[in-house]
Structure formats: C-alpha cells, structure tokens
Amino acid sequence: MAHRGTGFFDTRGHFYKTPDEATISDLASVLGKIGDGESLAPGIAQTMLDRRCEIERLFAEHDAMMADYQPIGAGKVTRLQTRAS
What we know:
Largest sheet: 2 strands, antiparallel
Number of helices: 3
C-alpha cells in the first residue's frame, strides 16, 4: 500500500530523510574537499551543526569587534620628511 512521507533536499536536489542530513550535505559542499583521500568536510559539517550555538556566538562577537575596527594606519599615514643629502 502506498504511503506518504516527508523528505528533505539539499541545494543540489539530493534527497535526505532528516533536515540535519540535508544541512550537513550543504555545509560539506560549502567547505569543499578537505584532506587527502576521503574528504573530512562531512565530519566537520556535522561538528559545525552540533556546535551551532557556540559558532553563532563566536561570529556575533567577531561582527561586534569588526564594527569599529580599522587596521593600523588605515587612512592615518603620516609621511616622514626625508633628509637632504
């Protein structure tokens, strides 16, 4: 007998049974191939999803630091006078 089900798709259109699996696939795709042999990207993507709260907090802190950050000397260069020989 036919039955109805729910599925989730990554951006490439691949089917997954859970939202986590689809998201991990997309994260791994963004990361690209990492390491020699089989890529470490899927494992890293899983860790990123598992630690999402901490990662989002770190990015929020980074954004706050960058809000008023200016590299040393950016727009504040003082030209030194050269000595006449």
